[in-house]
């Protein structure tokens, strides 16, 4: 059977051997999974190793290198001076390939593992129990439960549907939600969009709820059929990676031009053509920062890993870098800044004084809380051991808890009332209604919600004042106020017309609920402020309640204002854009308003992170630079629209993630600093030496050795650098700020000059000066000395790059692999020069004791220059930063160690 829309519910159930009330058993589910497979789309085919190698061989630098190897092979045959050089070049090409491929693969694997944590959850009935589980575990025949905000986890035939509407635009392109009906029976040949008794994988529920039996999973679902076509999608690069690629391309161009130039002057200086062309080719390769891309990928995946450990799941890799640039965070209040653990503090009944919950309840108080309970959907389950579990939303849980604390229960009263209908709560309406049939005759309408939304009948003289006075009183103590209205009718109004039901209500009373702020919220808001990030609170709560909490956790400052949803409607986009800086709290807003807030901040050039959990938050989550959804309370729809999921729903986690993001950005800047200095120095050295007629300071093999061993391997570990917490003591980096901003360009130039100068000086001394001892002067000795200095300075440079502070302030324990790899490389380079029998392979010769001294001394100079530069830089920066901190928050601060 293929067309399940033609089958009746019972027939479908029968076919899948499924029980409507208990679902499948776990054992059966396991069996079916082995038969039908997991409910997932086929993974994109892994690129084979051969393909990977070919991909790298296509790389221009590898081609040039192989050409160079070929050239030196020709020369070896022609001149007969051995095959060592071509063999060494080819081995280095291979080493380079192995390094690139293994590192890239492990980085990709790590990212893949992390993104698979993101698989959505669904509600399933198994063994008679409702369970939340990963959608991948679903099998045909499973009973799934759909509710507002669910993503349909597989193709399924509906069994029950209540006002169920599903957005199928992802599948059919139809933007209007389709109204589902389990009871329909259709005849053959119905297109997808009209199969109203079916739901399809990947679509989402926009209203109502339902139960369905799974008919098709994985590649057998309608979405799976499309996924087959989409499978060969390209890997998407983050904006940063794309910009970096441009940087790398321009450096490659410079390298190639420099190489041609070198070839030209070499020939003019009378060097042999073959020598020069091999050299030029090698230079072109050496100067290309091949590892840049790799280190960026490694940094990003390291960042994602660190974020997961701090409860932030990254769904889109580009969020890592955008988070680091975040300058405004718009956060929900309830559950994110507060604990979402409500409890009732106070009650009020018209005509009486406010009443604390700890006082002895009279009849009227008992009646009020009972009626609130009647107007709630929360349910209470008594366990055998006498403990009680309440299920429902936090507001209603608080009501039920108080009810039971006072020795009352809903049961005793439900005998008198029978539930006939409900108008559900929504963030737009901010109220909900329950309609009950009274055994004694007639109907009781109970509406609970925000006082300002409740359609109350006209108050008696003076009453209105009393009500709003109590409301202000409660809200001023940061209590969330909930009002209850009721009306008795003889005839049941049509449930289709909410405005007919919810009118002329009599006010029963108010309750004030406390939802304590999360203890870490105030600290996190403070951290954000120090980091130049503005926190904005967005809530459906009343302005007074919201501002009381916002003031407590430091969001609402002295000159900042609260804007209500109503006021927001009345101001134009231009005004909002102009005044957006004044508003720190948005109260009584609907999710739809969020998008205006996001856009107004963005108009001002800010990078905005926005939180959300409901279906209606989706547009704002998408519009924000970083959309953040709630792992615990968020709907699947919101999660799938977001860039990052907070697994603990905690505001403080956002700040941790921002700090991680900044660390990644800083490490990438360090990488650029590191690679650019090393590569450009090489170009400068070769060119200057040729122009001066000093010959060739480092041979092709030496260049390659320095690049692969000196820069390549230790450089990889830069992605693991951890910056100190002061990274969060400066303003966010602007969206379009270049990589080389903030003084990076000037230190690159300074270090390039220093590094090239010492190598040239070392080479000159060893080639032309007579030093005591029996070595040299000769070009061979000069080359060995130049090689040592170039290698050593490159490695020492890594330490300079690690921190903006003195290298002595950075402990070695922070990043042991950097230490191990650099020590190893320094030793290897020394070994090659010290042991001529091995060094011979790489054109290296033995050098004298004084040469060693000269090399060591010169190698230290760039680091010393950098240290002096840092000293001066930090002096002025301390002043600047003090001023900055003075502006933001009176706090003494020093320069942090990141770039
Ligand atoms: P927030 O943005 O803080 O999460 P909500 O949208 O949850 O705010 O709630 C907004 C308002 O709706 C509350 O101030 C309260 O008056 C009302 N409200 C919240 N929960 C319920 C509920 N379960 N039943 C009735 N009214 C509610
Ligand atoms: Mg809410």
From TrEMBL:
The chain crosses the membrane at residues 60-77, 83-101, 247-267, 273-300, 672-691, 697-718, 739-765, 780-799, 819-838, 850-872. One of its GO terms (molecular function) is ATP binding. One of its GO terms (biological process) is export from cell. Its EC number is 7.2.2.10. Keywords: ATP-binding, Calcium, Calcium transport, Cell membrane, Ion transport, Magnesium, Membrane, Metal-binding, Nucleotide-binding, Translocase, Transmembrane, Transmembrane helix, Transport. GO terms for cellular component: plasma membrane. It holds the Pfam family Cation_ATPase_C. Its main location: membrane. It is a multi-pass membrane protein. Residues 3-77 form the Cation-transporting P-type ATPase N-terminal domain. It comes from the Bacteria. InterPro entries: ATPase_P-typ_cation-transptr_C, ATPase_P-typ_cation-transptr_N, ATPase_P-typ_cyto_dom_N, ATPase_P-typ_P_site, ATPase_P-typ_TM_dom_sf, ATPase_P-typ_transduc_dom_A_sf, ATPase_P-type_domA, HAD-like_sf. It is found in: Cell membrane. It catalyses: Ca(2+)(in) + ATP + H2O = Ca(2+)(out) + ADP + phosphate + H(+). Belongs to the cation transport ATPase (P-type) (TC 3.A.3) family. Type IIA subfamily. This is P-type Ca(2+) transporter. It comes from Lacrimispora algidixylanolytica. The lineage of its organism: Bacteria, Bacillati, Bacillota, Clostridia, Lachnospirales.
